[in-house]
Amino acid sequence: PQGTMAFTGKYEFEADENYDAFVQKIGLPSDKVELGRNCKIVTEVVQNGNDFTWTQHLPGGRSTTNSFTVGKEADMETMGGKKFKATVKMEGGKLIADFPNYLHTAEISGGKLVEISTSSGVVYKRTSKKIA
Questions:
Q1: Domains of the chain from N-terminus onward
Q2: pLDDT tier at 2 (50, 70, 90 boundaries)?
Q3: So where does this one cross the membrane (predicted)?
Q4: What is the dihedral of CA 78, 72, 103, 33, to 10 degrees?
């Protein structure tokens, strides 16, 4: 069914909100802060039922890939390069993952990929438009 494949696609960074407050809250090193600011990250998602491969392509050829199955613990990596284990849940069409110091949700809304990260009351929102 169409609904299960909703995430598959390539998305390019369009806008974000609260970036500085959020990266400060999670203690991102300043070199990484500048790297991520208005960064044209391209997020590539391949969804096959409950199995996902989620790749973030950063300018300069660096990329981070996380593969996971909804409801099963997986080895993940943050954009800062920290490795951790998480179980991604699916609730109401949203993917929800507990990162080491923030809660991350992702959903497709109006054809865009909307990602929200929350850390101690600071909400960071990133919107990416579909390009493929």
A1: 9-130 (2.40.128.20)
A2: very low
A3: none
A4: 10
